[in-house]
Amino acid sequence: MSGVATGPSMGRVNSPAASTAVPATPSQARYEPPRFSARGPISSALLEALGRGIREAGESLGGLEHSTREAIAASPDVIRDDDLQLSLLILHGLHYGGVVDSDDDWEWHPALVAARVAIERAFEAELRRQVPVPELPNPSSEDVAAALFELTKPTPGPSLSRYVARKASEEQLREYLVLRSIYTLKEADAQTWAVPRLQGRAKAALMEIQTDEYGAGDPERMHSAIFARAMRGLGLDDRYGTYIDCVPAVTIASFTMMTMFGFNRSLRGATAGHFSAYEMTSSIPNRYLAQGVRRLGFGDDIAWYFDEHVEADSVHEQIAGRDLSGGLAEAEPSLLADIMWGANCSLIVDGWGSAEALACWEAGRSALRMPLPSGAER
After folding, report:
1. Residue 60: which domain range?
2. Of 166, 188, 232, 374, which is most buried by a Cβ count within 10 Å?
3. Per-residue pLDDT tens for 216-227?
4. CB within 8 Å of 74: residues ≥ 6 apart
């Protein structure tokens, strides 16, 4: 549950009396309702407004920034706050598209931008409080790469991918894909925001990785498309947003964190470090996941996504460590601490979500926030 408190200001956001919106027009019929529900007053206000055209609803959000700041102040942990994390996903979704069907003009509405920035600043501050900066290497390409490989080296013991390989049921595999879908149906997009914020060697390295992520020009080989195919093969709906209600806030936070890092030039070091660690910790887990898919009797068409990452990410990790993060550290040594901190954010925040899911499965419970919606399987 969200730690958001409702106060008088929320009435200003939601109250019809406070709105100067004109009556609804027939043009509103083109906006499909979202495939997920609000989790508190901020996300509720956003979804209510986005369901209408900007000319009909724009003035109704006059109190949104104030209400958002009140919600942030009342939240014990922005990272795990259902309402604030869903709100940030919605606000980021205005730039991605495909999260909420809405008037395109909402993307840069001042009230929504102000709310997004307020949540992002609180989110970043909480991440800096909870995630330490590792010991810093020399700001050289080889030293940074060596430090990142040391930070991300495999550890023994239980893990979500090992559980899928050896024990997971078909239903648990389906839950795993649902949890992954929040990011993976938009795979690589969060990092692409960083391309114009980088220069030289780091930019070229990111683009080299992204070319593979986007299928080297073949839309059927885009990693997001291969993942969607795996979802369909397990009877799941691959439309973005279908399973957002099922996913806990900390899982949403792993994606909104990526987007926040990519969106903000001041966090370009963090996005480089995060992406490097993400690639460095991908190949081995995906080998386990492919084993689990085949153990459960599914074929290469379902395992393709995981097989692809075993091969591709063993190459990407070298490019990311030496050229993306290492190259950025050499070009801008002042970003070294953020590079290493971003890498640790990848490990720790994703680790929280994985640990929670694994604990649920080992206790015989679903890892989802709520059951899969009826009719949402194909």
Report:
1. 25-130
2. 188
3. 999 999 999 999
4. 3, 4, 5
